[in-house]
Each structure stands twice: as C-alpha cells, then as structure tokens.
Design brief:
The protein is of the alpha+beta class and 127 residues long. 52% of the residues lie in helices and 13% in strands. A three-stranded antiparallel beta sheet has the order 1-3-2, covered by helices on one side.
C-alpha cells in the first residue's frame, strides 16, 4: 500500500489540539495521520491515497482553524482513548452507584455507561 505525504505550513500562532486535528483530518481522509512539533509551523500529513485539490484545501483549513491545544482538550482526548481496563474500572463504580440509587427511598434512574463516560469527559473539559 502506498503512503502519500503532504507538507503544510501554517501562520497560526497557537498549537492546534492534536486529537481534534486528527479527528477532523480523518473526516477528510480516513487513513490520515499528522505530525507536528508545537511552535513549528510545519505539518506533515500522511494518507494511503492521493488527496484531491479539494481535500488538500480542506486539510490546510483544518490546520489553520482547529481549536488551540489546552489541558482540558488533551484530557478529553485521553479519556476518549482510555484502555478497556480504565473504562471497566469507571463503569464498575457506576454499577455500584446504580445499586445505591435503586435502593433510595425514592429510587433514581440508573446512569448508563454512555452517560457516565460523557460526564467524565465533560468534567475534564471544565477543570
């Protein structure tokens, strides 16, 4: 399988959030990878298929306009990529909370796994 590499330069003054850049690039081309060094305006994008001129323009736009990196976004990206053991730990705690919630004098609805992970991600974004 061929790999195509594209070099991009950006005049942005902030470092883009890596997780956001990668997610947005993979909408343009599912095999996209990106490498860059914070503070250096050069970006290397690799893909398994040649990009069209429209895709090249879209990639440049992602690089130029993506949200800036922050500790909160980095934490959310890390949560999105938690290994299964971390997710199992968090969801086991939620299971125990659900047992308690069900036994309250006025029972509360169970917290779903999706709600729990979304709440953890939201909390990381607001710390």
């Amino acid at each position: 399988m061929a790999t195509y590499q594209y070099q991009f330069t950006s005049s942005r003054t902030t470092t883009p959030d890596f997780g956001t850049v990668l997610r947005q690039l993979r909408v343009i081309e599912a095999t996209a990878g990106v490498w860059y060094t914070p503070g250096v305006p050069e970006y290397l994008v690799t893909v398994n298929a040649a990009l069209t001129p429209t895709q090249i323009t879209a990639v440049q736009n992602v690089i130029d306009t993506c949200v800036a990196a922050s500790p909160e976004l980095s934490a959310q990206t890390e949560i999105d990529n938690w290994p299964i053991m971390f997710k199992a730990f968090a969801l086991a705690l939620i299971d125990q909370l659900n047992v308690i919630r069900a036994k309250l004098p006025t029972p509360l609805a169970a917290i779903t796994p999706a709600q729990a992970l979304a709440a953890i991600r939201a909390k990381a974004g607001n710390l």
